[in-house]
Amino acid sequence: MMTESTAAKPIRTAITSDDGIDLPLIELLFFAYRDFTSDPDQILAELGFGRAHHRILHFVNRTPGLTVAELLDVLKITKQSLARVLKQLIDTGHVVQVRGPRDRRQRELYPTTRGRELALALARPQSRRIRAALEGAAGGDRRVIERFLKAMVNPELRAQIDNLPGNMPGKSHGQQ
User: Number of structural domains, the chain?
Assistant: First the structure.
């Protein structure tokens, strides 16, 4: 058990790889994520939106007709969190909600022209960043990177990646 005096005492040595932590890759992921999200963050901030808006717009545009329940499953957020952000996207005309044709209780989500344009504006700088990073890569490097990133996803959730339109297990995804 940690006492108050122990908790308040500063530690003057850094965590190192000797602690069994892969610090170089952790830090590369931190820095890559920071820069990967920086361009869309600027666009989103101008609209008063955040990263949750971005994720919703991305998946609604990738799978028009996605139900609210399916989106909750993909994003792994609470219904309450989704409801607040989704309401903003609907109120601003980026997304429309339609009752399901088979089950009237289901709500299907579709991008509007405005929502499609914003999703593309957010994805373009990210795509350029990925393309630039891959320019110096060898031919098979992309598949290695895809496998690595997919392996970072919890095993029971990897099927969600395969189920996105245009994705097939084992298929390398180029520019579309």
Answer: 1
